[in-house]
Design goal:
The chain is mostly helical. The chain is built from 11 helices and 2 strands, in the order H-H-H-H-H-H-H-H-E-H-H-E-H. Strands 1-2 form a two-stranded parallel sheet. Helix 2 packs antiparallel against helix 7, helix 2 packs across helix 10 and helix 9 packs across helix 10. The longest helix has 16 residues.
Length: 194
């Protein structure tokens, strides 16, 4: 267990849900296709909202969104959509729920989703040494290219800022600030699933 007085990225408040996400998941390189798809969907739902809102509803999303199974979501019907529009446990946004279905279809159409996602950082984590949160960009060339490519492939809610956040979350971009204890730990960590 990490002591509570450990220095973390300044975006991580004292909330235990946020701390667990920061300490155990954010910035850890992932090549697990299920995790990569889940995070892409969650990042889309986060648009215009705070990330803690999404984290607190993550289990409810998992249940409502069929375990983030792209095969089941790709064939979800209008009844499923209308049921979720009445589900108070999740973000009830018709455009975002429709995007889940189209994103699942687009994900399944990719020859190798993991290789596709990792191609934007040259198939390796890009380790950055930003001293403060103010130095961390909200978008960059990798996210711009990814956004364009995802849109061309039929994905929705994948603008450059969402893609930047996604790349950071899944460890393609390791953007823990240098004063954060996770920076040193992740600077030499190989991707999960390799």
């Amino acid at each position: 267990m990490t002591p509570s007085h450990t220095t973390r990225c300044t975006w991580c408040p004292d909330d235990p849900v946020y701390r667990r996400y920061h300490d155990e998941e954010w910035g850890v390189p992932s090549r697990d296709p299920d995790h990569l798809f889940e995070m892409l969907i969650l990042e889309g739902f986060q648009a215009g909202l705070s990330w803690i809102t999404i984290l607190r509803k993550r289990d409810a999303f998992r249940q409502a969104l069929l375990g983030f199974d792209p095969h089941r979501l790709a064939t979800a019907d209008e009844h499923w959509l209308e049921t979720q529009m009445r589900n108070p446990a999740i973000i009830r946004n018709r455009l975002k729920l429709n995007a889940v279905r189209s994103n699942a279809q687009a994900w399944l159409a990719l020859a190798d989703p993991v290789d596709f996602i990792w191609s934007f950082t040259g198939d390796r984590p890009m380790i950055h040494d930003y001293p403060t949160q103010a130095d961390v960009p909200t978008t960059g060339p990798e996210a711009q290219t990814m956004s364009h490519s995802l849109k061309r492939a039929g994905f929705k809610f994948v603008g450059p800022t969402i893609c930047q956040s996604y790349l950071q979350a899944i460890g393609c971009l390791m953007d823990h600030t240098t004063d954060c204890y996770r920076h040193a730990q992740l600077a030499d960590t190989p991707a999960r699933g390799l």
